[in-house]
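Duplicate of earlier report; Veg family protein input re-posted below.
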Amino acid sequence: MPNTMEGIKERINESKGQPVLITAQLGRHRMKKQRGVIAETYPAIFVVKLAPESALGTMDCVSYTYTDILTKEIAVDFLAAETEE
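Output:
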């Protein structure tokens, strides 16, 4: 992942529609991992539509700021697109 704000925004914009694994730091050595797809990108945030197994109750989308990536509050791993047969 790039280490500048513009580089991060560009990488996320290019990856719109791709599956990702988000690892969020919750503090005190706790982490939360969620799978989803980058659904929308905006100037300050991006939205991830969660996979059914990662959805938290009724919440099926989460949003993060590009600053979250820059400050390492979250890590975004891009997954290979699953092909349907």
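Helices lie at 5-14, 66-70.

Merging into the original ticket.
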